[in-house]
Structures are given as C-alpha cells and as structure tokens.
Amino acid sequence: MSRSQIFSKIRETTDNLAEKTAYPTYETSVMHSNVKLKQADLWDAFAENFKAVNGRPMNSVQQLAEFLDGNNQRVGYCDPELFDSIGKALVAAGLKVETTYDRDRYDDYQFGITRATGAIAESGSLIIDDFKTTYRLAALSPWVHVGVLKKSEIHRTIPDAIAAFGDAPNIIWCTGPSKTADVEGILIEGVHGPGEQIALLV
User: Fold this and answer.
1) With the C-alpha atoms ordered 161, 166, 171, 177, is the resulting torsion angle positive or negative?
2) CB under 8 Å to 180, separation ≥6 — which residues?
3) What is the pLDDT of residues 94-118, one digit of tens each?
4) Which of 32-41, 105-114, 127-136 has the highest mean pLDDT?
5) What's the predicted TM-score (pTM) here?
6) Bridge partners (DSSP) listed for residue 75
7) Contact 46, 121 (CB under 8 A)
8) Domains and CATH numbers, the chain
9) Cβ neighbours of residue 119 under 8 Å, at least 6 residues apart?
10) How many Å apart are CA 140 and CA 193, to the nearest integer?
C-alpha cells in the first residue's frame, strides 16, 4: 500500500470521529510540585528547572551568539519573523543564518531558531506547536534548538499549560535535550532530537 493510500485511509477513518473528548476534571491544587515553584518570578522558576534537565536558559542574543560560535555551530535556520531581532545579530557575529528551511538539506543546519508557543515553569519545558513554530523539523532535527519566548508565555504549572492547549493539531513539550536510557539504562542525550535545548527570553 502506498503512502498516499495509507493517509487516505487515516483521513476516512478520522473524518467520522466525534468532537475531541473533554479533558478530565481534577483538583489542580494537588497536581503540581510546590518545591519546583519556590521563586515568585516565573522566568526564574522556569530557568532553574530547565537547567535541572540540562537545558540552557538565555536572556540575550549576544549570549546566544557567543554560545553558537564557541561551539562551532555556525550554520542554521531562523524563523523569518525573528530574523530582525535575532538573526541579524548572529550574521553580524559571523554566523550563516537562513530564513527558509530546506528539508532536503536538514544535515546542513547546526542550529534552528523557532518561536516557542510557551514554557512551563514547574517542569522546565518548552512548548512548540504547529501554529507558532514554523518548520517543526527546524526545531527537532538540528543539534541545537533555540526556542524563543516572552515572559508572558510562561505557564506556572503543568495543569495551566494543559488548560491553554488550544486547537493546534501537534503540541510538543521539550523538557531539555532529547534523552533515552533504553540501552542498559545508560542515559544518552541528543539521540532522537536536539542535543542542546536553549530557551531564549525576549
């Protein structure tokens, strides 16, 4: 069976489904970790929990440029909407930045800079979805992913983030670099996604 036939069958099946099932009700006050939310400032809480899962919180483009240059990550993609505020500074620092993601050249991109839909302070997770994140592959295939977010987009708890899901067909929570411990229980990072996860506050 061809790829188009498979997807055609999936569409036929899902077109007849009823509306999405409602989220279950639960007591949100007992569904989060107060220990991970000690700081009053949501960025501070997120940054601490993001670092705990080996993410790199940053709050300046200069810091990002120095990190990329210092780690020889010199070719990448930047969301066109972020080019003026971020990409131009990286180009000025000597990096090559493209604003169109060529799927056939995914191996060429050492970093990808995309909008994040938000973040979760409690778990140190970046949120990306199909509405705000251009070229999802640009967030998932380069060794370095930079999720750009505003302070107002940080959710305090996991229940808060679930309540704000919206209608995006795909929502991904990135809690630090990709990880697996499938082989003999040894934790390895960067196996099936970015090996460096950066959250850039703008």
Assistant:
1) negative
2) 187, 188, 191, 192
3) 999 999 999 999 999 999 999 999 9
4) 105-114
5) 0.83
6) 96
7) yes
8) 39-201 (3.40.50.10420)
9) 46, 50, 125, 126, 127, 147, 149, 153, 154, 155, 199
10) 5
